[in-house]
């Protein structure tokens, strides 16, 4: 039942809110336009207070039934006490005017209902009596002298108003009367009590206006009149009513307000049927403040509140109107008909619902803008008005759920969020972001300030409300950040696992930074030698893939550690790294390949090599290079990189191998070449020597990597020899000559093999495959450097051996040129000339001539 | 929290998720709840997204996030994950 829509449980909160409201009421105008969140909050809670009293429900606004009805209604703005004239109030929408009646009836109904727990039939009668009484009273009161003052009371209790909007005067009166009653020891308690009364849903009254039975249990706690008093009165409603009226007039210190109201009401009813109910309400309400006893005071305000709630829906309004009209005439009749009352009951229910509706939709707007709205609405034509109302409706919906959190709540949430985000160890927990920022923008500052700013930006958090206070918000956020950091530090290490001794299970808990571990691997007892425990088939050999991968990971770990030390400008000790590289371990009987060289077959290792190398000490660098060169033919990319491995595939090197060769080139080879370009003569010579002596040179020369490396070594040696020959010892030079001779011997007679068939221009062995269009310049570079380092005899032998290739290339160039592919032809000739120029020759597509200076 | 650290750098990148929402990443928190602006979806399929301009998506409801490869530093990502793994296995790097 709608009656019980009042949510008793909502009361305490309501009371509180009510106080807030009182406080904020003074500043109401100021706050009206401010968009500060604080203000909004105040509005939220304060404004809500009046509405809260009944069945306060945050979600109520979303209720479908509510919205449907609420939508239709123009926002019934509470009229500000002094702003609207009586006439205006009279003109206000019928809905409003009807409200009072509703409330009146509601109260009575409630009374009767509760009262007569027995049957409903009795209720109506009682009600009727009460209504009658009221009206009779109204008429009975002497209007004339008090008329002038009528308007104020009306305004006070005008439709939208809540009890708290009582003018200070009235409040004072209430207070005074409360104190006068002697029930309250001091002003404060009295004030509180009054406030409570105001806020409280219909308290029980002596006079029987307020049904005691109606009161939901929670209300009992409030300062309520003794039940005993109420009951008899309720039983005899007529008596109760007169009491109400009489005492008020007689006892009230400020009779003016009371008296005027009643007469006025009577008059108003006759004059304007719409307003009559309102006035009635007012009448009832008005007396309350002036009531001599606390009980009376209590009674009246609650009534008002009821009215407000049940207040305006259109449907309700229309019904109310009819009810009004009937009631307007009925007052003179001794009794109202049963029907009418029932009708009113029904209407009451509707109206009540409407009240909810209204509350839900205009919850926040209400106090803020109602007044303005009201005035505006009155000036609009119907069309504009409906538009305006629709808009209001929308705004109401939007703001319905805003402002529930006060700044403190928000700060709290922010702190929680920040404490998750902030870390005292950004380089472990936030490494990617930190380094990425450094790498990708030079300007980014990494301070708390920055974090706070960024957070504010991203979260769209407006701590300070509008932008004018952004700096303050920033400050607060900074404080939050630093606080969060210090807390994070204090918190220290958390394993995320809680295991109690003797417990069977473990409790793991997660945080944002450290998600819950689902697997807890027992890390203890790791000391035991796994080799002893594991069966033989599970033993890991060093050459097994998983062991190699884990070795590489340990290399990475060492690299990360050393790089970190480097960034911190601390000394670097590469011993651990050196150990993890296994360069000096050498091959054992189990291995076919040196462990370090085996590692180099992994992409990962190639990639990390560029980072490893600079971290090594000088002798370790040399040892590493030596290791690579002496085992060059076992390096994966060299081993698989020879075209001779793939005669069945038309000598085409498989794609995956080719891509790894490329990777090797841009990682390992690049690093080595860079190092060699600064290396001294003796070292380079030594390295070349180790390549030549420990490898199958002929095989190396069929691979791109091998050929490129040899080319680099030879040209470096030759460069040093030509430019700094004075610094070189005769021993070095003769050593170099020996090495060259041995290299040349390996190749002599088989020099053509360095040219893969797919690059060959010799028609007899030429083969077309996917690699044919590739860059063959490295071959001509090799030939060039070989002839550069050699004597005339060597050069002649070289030219002799590759003669077919030379003329093949010229022919190919000529053919391409005639086909119009000049660019490609030029490329062929240029590569060829790389080689020929060394010997002072120059080729074009037709002829080979001596290179001249011209 | 590697993922968080990673996604933090991707603000302003285009993302998609479960229902295939494409938008500009505005912010992300430690639960990988994401906020997208300038949202675009297959409106024919999901007409109710027509009027949606920005969304906040609970991280746990996201199946995939497609990223622009150009904005991902994979080497750094590898390093970061290794570092985190080292830190969680007790072999923590103290400095940067």
From TrEMBL, chain A:
GO terms for molecular function: RNA binding. Residues 82-96, 105-121, 265-278 have a biased composition (Polar residues). Residues 1-128, 225-300, 316-360 are annotated as: Disordered. One of its GO terms (cellular component) is nucleus. The keyword RNA-binding applies. Residues 28-41 have a biased composition (Acidic residues). Pfam families: PAT1. It is found in: Cytoplasm, P-body; Nucleus. GO terms for biological process: deadenylation-dependent decapping of nuclear-transcribed mRNA; P-body assembly. Belongs to the PAT1 family. This is DEKNAAC104858. It comes from Brettanomyces naardenensis.
UniProtKB/TrEMBL annotation, chain B:
It comes from Brettanomyces naardenensis. Its main location: nucleus. Pfam families: LSM. Keywords: mRNA processing, mRNA splicing, Nucleus, Ribonucleoprotein, RNA-binding, Spliceosome. It is found in: Nucleus. This is DEKNAAC102534. GO terms for molecular function: RNA binding. The lineage of its organism: Eukaryota, Fungi, Dikarya, Ascomycota, Saccharomycotina. InterPro entries: LSM_dom_sf, Sm, Sm_dom_euk/arc, U6_snRNA_Lsm2. GO terms for biological process: mRNA splicing, via spliceosome. GO terms for cellular component: catalytic step 2 spliceosome; Lsm1-7-Pat1 complex; P-body; precatalytic spliceosome; U4/U6 x U5 tri-snRNP complex; U6 snRNP. Residues 1-71 form the Sm domain.
